[in-house]
Amino acid sequence: MSTVQTRARRTFAACVTIIAGAGAPDVYGETIAVTSTVTSTGAEDAEIAQALAADQETKPEERAPWSLQSLLPDIALIGDFALAWFSEDENLQGGAHDPVENGFNLQQLELSLAGKVDAYFRFDANIVFSLYGVEVEEAYATTLDLPGGLQLRAGQFLTRFGRLNATHPHSWNFADSPFANTRVFGGEGNRGLGVELSWLTPLPWYVELVGSTNTIEGGPKVQDPFDLQWLAALKQFFPLSEDLSLSVGVSAATSPNTTGRANRTDLYGADLYLKYRPITEESTLIISLQSEVFYRRRQIPEDLLSDVNAYAELFVRFAQRFGVAGRFELGTTDPEYVENRYRGAASLTFWPTEFSRLRAQGSIDVPRWLDEPIYAAFLAAEFSIGAHGAHTF
């Protein structure tokens, strides 16, 4: 074998060994390293041999993981199930993921994928399976390196109106969503294809401004910008002490409705989240208060309708694995609700681990236009595997 062939084989072996044992370098860095090595001269043979020997002496557990792992997204599968009982056939459940009938319910099976695309973008997707089909709940890209505290999000996403709308069932304190939300946003929440721009201001406390525009699912055909939904929100956070924090926000949105070409719906909201979690001493106690109120104005042919919807819920995690919660809801009159509606609910939750959750819930619903209240009871279970489903334990 010639000297040139011998050097070529050494160079190729060095490239394979270095790439396989190098951990998770930048993809472009690998290409540059390979090119540089292949074009090296015979004067570097001693260095290559030394590198090969050092690599062979490295223990497997001391080597960085194979770089392909860094290219894979975080993947999780989350299943929510409930055994439900209602005192009335007309149970008025409005959420797409709520238990809706007596007996066993598959609330959702959510496949979540998330990962960094490159140095500039992150991509998240949530695919929801039910007994009746599959839907893309969210699929959007988020920028990672815009200047001036700016961040852009584009794709299909749940908007950041208020607090609860942008969240998923595995983060809720109850097995169903408040009717205050489902009444104004519909069963699937306020979502659509669009773009969102947020700005984290340089003020001395946390202040974020959010603006977005979306197509409306089930809305009119888009012929001009006024056929889109336009949304603005202000988010603020205040650390009141080392153990107590407060988040407040206001939101507004306007969009066309289906009652006529020029008719619009305007929605205004305010939200509050107060959380007490001792960190100055060892404790598993968590107490939180969450509330939202919505004021809606709707144009219909020859009339203008308005209604108010609100909820407030108190959550107490009194032990590492146990928590209780209570919720009260209110909805005022309009042609859909001929009288006010009230609902109260209580839940007890047990977390065997951070990847599973068992919950018992009971509620009494009082739509004043019905002769009898609606009583409901749920036994709910959630199981998650993968990276996304784990929460603070």
Class computed from helices, strands and strand pairing:
mainly beta
Overall geometry: globular
CATH architecture of the largest domain: Beta Barrel
Helix fraction by DSSP (H/I, runs of at least 4):
10-25%
CATH class of the largest domain: Mainly Beta
Average pLDDT, to the nearest integer? 85
* Elements, N to C (H/E): HHHHEEEEEHEEEEEEEEEEE
- Count of all domains: 2
Q: What is CATH's topology name of the largest domain?
A: Porin
The number of helical segments is 5
Distance between the termini: 63 Å
Radius of gyration: 27 Å
**What proportion strand?**
over 45%
CATH H level, superfamily name of the largest domain: Porin
Major beta sheet summary: 16 strands, antiparallel, barrel
Total number of strands: 16
Strand order of the largest sheet: 1-2-3-4-5-6-7-8-9-10-11-12-13-14-15-16
Extract low-pLDDT stretches.
1-41, 389-393
Topology readout:
Layout: H1 3-21, H2 27-38, H3 45-57, H4 68-71, E1 74-86, E2 103-116, E3 121-130, E4 133-143, E5 150-158, H5 179-185, E6 191-200, E7 206-214, E8 229-239, E9 244-256, E10 264-276, E11 286-300, E12 303-319, E13 322-331, E14 341-353, E15 356-367, E16 374-386
Antiparallel strand pairs: 1-2, 1-16, 2-3, 3-4, 4-5, 5-6, 6-7, 7-8, 8-9, 9-10, 10-11, 11-12, 12-13, 13-14, 14-15, 15-16
Q: Would you kindly provide a written description of the structure presented here, covering whatever features stand out?
A:
It is a single chain. With 393 residues, this protein is mainly beta. It folds into two domains: 3-68; 73-386, Porin (Beta Barrel), CATH 2.40.160.10. Helix content is 14%, strand content 49%. It is built from five helices and 16 strands. The protein has helices at residues 3-21, 27-38, 45-57, 68-71, 179-185; strands spanning 74-86, 103-116, 121-130, 133-143, 150-158, 191-200, 206-214, 229-239, 244-256, 264-276, 286-300, 303-319, 322-331, 341-353, 356-367, 374-386. The protein has a 16-stranded antiparallel barrel. Helix 1 packs antiparallel against helix 2 (27-38) and helix 1 packs parallel to helix 3 (45-57). It starts with a helix and ends in a 7-residue tail after the last strand.
